[in-house]
UniProtKB/TrEMBL annotation:
It holds the Pfam family Aldo_ket_red. Coiled coil: none annotated. It comes from the Bacteria. InterPro entries: AKR2_Oxidoreductase (IPR053135), NAD(P)_OxRdtase_dom_sf (IPR036812), NADP_OxRdtase_dom (IPR023210). Residues 45-234 form the NADP-dependent oxidoreductase domain. It comes from Micromonospora deserti. This is Aldo/keto reductase.
Amino acid sequence: MAIIDRLAGASRIGLGLAAVGRPGYINLGRAADLPVERTVEALRARACELLDQAYAAGVRYFDVARSYGRAEEFLAQWLQARPDIDDVVVGSKWGYTYTAGWRVEAETHEVKDHRVATFDRQYGETRALLGDRLDLYQIHSVTPDSPALRDATLHRRLADLAEQGVVVGLSTSGPAQAEVIRSALGVRVDGQPLFRSVQATWNLLEPSAGPALAEAHDVGCLVFVKEALANGRLAVRGGVGDGVALAAALRQPWAAIVLSGAATGDQLASNLRAETLTVDPARWADLAVPGTRYWQERSQLPWT
């Protein structure tokens, strides 16, 4: 896959901008991570600082989404200000619409919709910001009830996008991630597999998607790991620490890129040190909890 070739020799840690693209998110410890005044300008500056630091450290994969507030905009502006940078891979996602209006306290922060009309609208919005820098476009947070797994019209739209050179994929969430991944692997258009990348939650608390991700890797899908720190639960006091948690994900033979969701320069530097650690994930196997419990607890994390 061309993306794999482009990432050869780069850090296997990618930087996601979910935590700095909008003022509210569900990571623990967030109150201390961001400026007191979370203005657009303040978070744009923070995002650019993190992108500069990550790029200097060898990170070449950057992850955004339509629902991450202004994350696509921040990344696009960073790229435009650095025209000599032509060796990064940019991935974005569609399927959630950001609805918080740049507020931390909002009744609803994002609305999920995987219909064709939403793809058409959000793809246009993404292209308007990222132009030809878009390399990977994923359906955001697919669950078993999503029409994205069955909608032939949507599949044709996505296949047409793939013919233009954009890698088409999906991200997953919830206790049925493995079911979704296996269903996605069976989706074909004109006899060819449609989805060529998968982004899923895998961490020491919730490793259940591992076997399905291995299957995806074995048939040529690019596998991204998100939430390796369990939204901060593995990094806070009493957890294993960010380095161990990220190193455990990096040790998975099917993982191409493990995402950092750092909100500060110190966090990013600490996350990147995971690549130097030797960790045996089996040592931490007893941390795993039932998937239903994990996702229930995650759903109760506050937006701060």
